[in-house]
Design goal:
By secondary structure, this protein is of the alpha+beta class. It contains 18 helices and 29 strands. The protein is flat, with a radius of gyration of 29 Å.
Amino acid sequence: MSTSQRRWAKGSEPVALDHAEAVIVDQYTRLVRLAYLTLPSSLTRHRRVLVAHSLVQRALPGFGTRRTASRASKIPLPRAGDDAAEPGTAEPDTERTASAPPGASWTGTSWMTARVLCAALTHERRPRGWPDRLPPPRELLPTLPVVWGLRLFPRAGGTEEIALAQLLSEVSAPSRAAFVLCRLDGLPRAEVTELLTAAGVSDAEKALETACHVEESVGEAAGALLRSQEFDACSVQTRPTDLLRRRRRFRLVWCAVGIAAISSVALATLSSSAQRDEPERPAGVRPAISADALLRTAPDAWADTSRVDFTAWPARGSRADDRALLTRALSTWTKPPRGTRVGAGRAATTEPPSPSTQLLYAGVVGKEAVVLFHDDSRVVRYGEPSSPAEPATLDFSRADDSDVTTAAALVAGREDGTVRYLTAPWIAEARTRDLLKPNAPGGPLDVSGEGLTAPVDVPSATGPCDSLPVLQLRSSVKIVEKHAFLVTDLGDLTPAHLSYTPLPGSGVPSRQPREATSSTALVSWARGACRLSELRGNGVRSVNQWDFAEQDLPENGGRAVWSCVRASTWRGPGDVTLQFRTSGESATAPAKVVGRARSTAACSRFGQHVVASTRWTAGSGHRYLLAAGSRDVTRISVTGDVETDKRGRTLAVRAPQDARATVRARLTDGEELAEVGAASSRAPGRTASTASTASQRARG
């Protein structure tokens, strides 16, 4: 019998080795994509690509560690009839597995899928007693494939793919695997549950339920998004590692060889000198990368790249070549000395610097020497006071998947109620404007040649809200013409991007968020700007104000506009506040809050429908229950102490002050919609009755 016909038996039935190999070859792209999406998002995209290929290649029976083989032996084996297929003639996986009835014996393809899942789900598992600061054992063992001198990563997708990737990063690995198996492979629920259980998932039903929630959030486009190039780990782009660093290392090796040949005494002297240059660190602590190893981007790279984010920032500042300052900053980041003030934004880690750390700025800001770094998913600020007696500061903020607006500025310093920004190299003009004065033009703002702005006032979090300055930036024409946008400081290193979605128009496609610089956008923002202070310190990436409905008030009471303000965070989830404003109030009077929800998809592209209600009193003293819905609402109904039903997107009905009512809407496709904050809007930990009662109490 030839080697290719050997059998690998761990259970009651054998599996043909050549058939297992044929399944891997035939289903390689699908299995790699499944492993890539299941692996933890904490790995870099380059590392996930290599690990995904490694896991699929090692899924062949006989590969892997003894522990993996032991776990794989618990996977149900295929029938002999399945193994009898000739190598290279395996049927497409989707057709074979999707048609299998629940409880049927597995195919060879299903068995290999379970092995890949088992390896991906246990990749970061650590043995008992293994230090948390060390990578998992599998990360320390070199496995094929190995790539030297290149970085691999899938081609970048659009905004929807990026949003889906962020959404998947918030759920567990078994839930990601279940989502891929359901939406990409089209497997029935019973078979997905069986695969997850065989792969070692203790609660497969819970993982499947979470995957269903993700599927509801994404919608019918989930399958197409998963098949996009963003998640295809077999169609990758390549970029070189740091060429200058490699050349320096190559030269150092030759110098070391020459010195060793000439004199061992000179070698010992050089070694001791190198040790003195490095700061002392306790044993077992991961050392900081050297100042010479920091990545630096060319000054004009931003004008010749399709990736306009922090990676396109050049190293700027008067002390960008101060090796001593950079070394102190990296050492403090690696192990902060006692007394160092360390601050981290929501979901931002404080891990030591990675080899891909990039220098953005090093200079003097106010009374501090400031160094700004970027390392793939974070921006880091190191502040060193002029007095040695004062402690240094270290701040971390999330910055993954930034773009031309969210990477347009960084907070370089704060002092005496002001903030100074470092603007991106593609910013051609910076101005300030007051959100509470929508009709007033923006004022000029001085920006140094390094991109450092003059101090900008920050409104007090506890004082009166009588002014709200924001930054208005304009991109260079090399990036996009006539592109101005607003950002504001919300306590993190990265200012939040402010946008606006206008009222829906009749007979036109649904409106998309746009920059909040038009007169209509500024007038709308003036009514809710003072509530931005509530978002400070929450890791907010962007805030969009969506005017989703307008309504004629009863008894000739004027016009009312309903808005949904969504604060999206860097980690993915967002909070929404529903507001109601009338034309009879002041142009800067705060709009009335009529609903809130936290960690919701509402008022985003994954939650495009909304209905809200409030109480309103006419000039005659009559009290009304008002309700309004978004573009696709066709009917609004009220139940409880008030009973009514009306076609259209708005409703007004007389109601006593203490009347309890539940408002629901019907969409064009027949689906029912509850108010934001009710159980159907997936607010965690609330039932329909408690949400309705709380909503009525909030309205008074």
